[in-house]
Specification:
The protein is 40% helix and 23% strand. By secondary structure, the protein is α/β, with parallel strands linked by helices. The strands form 5 sheets. A 7-stranded mixed beta sheet has the order 15-16-17-14-13-18-19, with helices on both faces. The structure holds NADPH dihydro-nicotinamide-adenine-dinucleotide phosphate.
Length: 477
């Protein structure tokens, strides 16, 4: 059965369908999904526009109930949805279930936020005048998501958009339509009025582009590559619309001489290789001071030998496959580039064979890398990391900040002085002390600076900044 797109409250088949393939076993077809056309996208935008006036004035209890019901169903079905996610994306079952729980928590959080939307009342600078500051929805929000968090990223964009009274046109990544289809189905059955949430699965260059080109989309929130992010920005400037971008990272993880070695190694392995290194918050630069360098590299090699790389759904798997052939090519190209640049491939980097045909890659660790190499400057988006040797903390901080990106930045140290200084001076939106660079909570702001992000933060109460517009009203008594 082909899973359809949702436009104006109706499930629409469209002309074409595409297959969702399991990266752990390319013989396994996860499902077939309708491919929306540019015309479908335009119908979806028109439906969202028509639904906006009523939804923007809907009661907070109605919105609360729908988001709450959605949260409850996602959490009740976490094992089944987590399995679907792992099957289509390739992260392990534990990671898939964890991400699904996070999506449920996000809907639960924003169900609560509907009831907490507050404004401000201030005296005017002039006598006998009152000033009220309120937040109103922005209008039709376009949501474009990547493949690496198939349920959490859609959740952290759709939940606040609906909570604050916006209507939505949602285009998930074509590689992973299954999880997106499932949450749209849940929201639809939870009682969303027609046109409030529209799903258009299909090609970015067709469906996504139709969204960028439409004057009827008032805000676009995007997560994905830097290149597509720039297109979103340019088109948004053209239409004078609000936009928010979460793009790449080249996140540093500093290890100081005084670090607890086991804490440093666990955090480094998690940062670089869990979720197959396919996280924008993954670390791919370990910046290590001289006194601990050799012990860190040896301990990393030992720890990496024990990693179980296999089918994402198999019990005991710690690292699943790469998402598809093109991402695998990108990873192996960068491994070749690192060698050509003179870094030493100290561990891994081999293609692996398993019981089923899949995109299996042994996580790779380079040593003797410099921060000028391409493997240290460009986002690889796979399980490939390098070690850069530095003299002391000052040099470590300077190398950590010497990157066009600024999403997440980590340090392993037992020194309060260095941890405090690093938290203040790391040029990143998120800083982690004795923790992996990836792995964040659902109720606090998420986002970066420099080339990693544009616009206000996602998640937590800070999401209101993007999904609402502020009104200042003056009343003469
Ligand atoms: P893209 O930026 O191409 O894709 C992200 C989303 O944008 C997808 O839904 C995609 O659609 C859509 N899109 C593509 N072209 C357009 C367009 N012209 N107009 C509007 N939307 C468009 O990233 P990829 O998924 O291809 O990944 C490529 C690289 O991006 C990765 O190797 C990685 O380096 C980086 N990346 C970073 C992420 C992050 O979280 N920072 C997440 C994912 C990727 P479609 O379904 O057709 O792909």
């Amino acid at each position: 059965m082909v899973q359809k797109n949702l436009i104006d409250g109706e499930w629409i088949a469209g002309g074409e369908a595409f297959r969702n393939i399991n990266p752990s076993d390319t013989n396994d077809v996860v499902g077939e999904y309708a491919r929306a056309s540019a015309d479908d996208a335009r119908l979806a935008i028109a439906a969202a526009k028509a639904a906006f006036p009523a939804w923007s004035r809907s009661g907070i209890l109605e919105r609360h109930a729908i988001l709450r019901k959605t949260a409850d169903e996602i959490l009740a079905r976490k094992d089944e949805l987590g399995r679907l996610l792992s099957r289509e994306e390739g992260k392990t079952l534990a990671e898939g279930i964890g991400e699904t729980v996070r999506a449920g928590q996000i809907f639960d959080f924003f169900a609560g936020e509907c009831l907490r939307l507050a404004g401000e009342v201030l005296p005017s600078a002039r006598p006998n005048i009152g000033v009220e500051i309120t937040r109103e929805p922005v209008g039709v929000v376009g949501i474009i998501t990547p493949w690496n968090f198939p349920i959490a990223i859609p959740a952290w964009k759709i939940a606040p958009a609906l909570c604050y009274g916006n209507t939505v046109v949602f285009k998930p990544a074509e590689l992973v339509p299954g999880s997106s289809w499932a949450i749209v189905d849940i929201l639809h059955r939870a009682g969303l009025p027609k046109g409030v949430l529209n799903l258009v699965m299909g090609k970015g260059s067709v469906v996504g582009q139709a969204m960028l080109d439409s004057p009827d989309i008032h805000a676009i929130t995007f997560t994905g590559s830097t290149g597509t992010g720039k297109r979103v920005a340019l088109a948004s400037v053209e239409h004078n619309r609000k936009y928010q971008l979460e793009m790449g990272g080249k996140n540093p993880f500093v290890v100081l001489d005084d670090a607890d070695l086991s804490v440093a190694v666990e955090a480094a392995v998690n940062s670089a290789f869990f979720s197959t290194g396919q996280r924008c918050t993954a670390s791919s630069r370990f910046i290590v001071t001289e006194g601990i360098h050799d012990r860190f590299v040896a301990a990393m090699g030992e720890r990496m030998k024990g990693l179980v790389i296999d089918d994402a759904l198999k019990a005991g798997t710690q690292i699943g496959p790469v998402v598809d052939q093109s991402q695998l090519n990108q990873d192996t190209d960068y491994i070749a580039i690192g060698r050509q640049e003179g870094a030493k491939l100290a561990f891994g980097g081999e293609l692996l064979k398993r019981d089923t045909p899949g995109f299996y890659l042994q996580p790779a660790l380079f040593t003797e890398a410099t921060n000028a190499m391409r493997i240290s400057r460009e986002e690889i988006f796979g399980p490939v990391a390098s070690v850069i040797r530095v003299k002391d903390y000052d040099e470590a901080l300077s190398v950590a900040n010497d990157t066009p990106f600024g999403l997440s930045s980590g340090i392993a140290t037992t020194s309060l002085k260095h941890a405090t200084h690093f938290k203040r001076n790391a040029e990143a939106g998120m800083v982690m002390v004795n923790l992996p660079t990836a792995g964040v909570d659902f109720h606090v702001p998420f986002g970066g600076r420099k080339g990693s992000s544009h616009g206000s933060r996602e998640q937590g109460r800070y999401a209101a900044e993007f999904y609402t517009t502020v009104k200042t009203a003056y009343t003469s008594a």
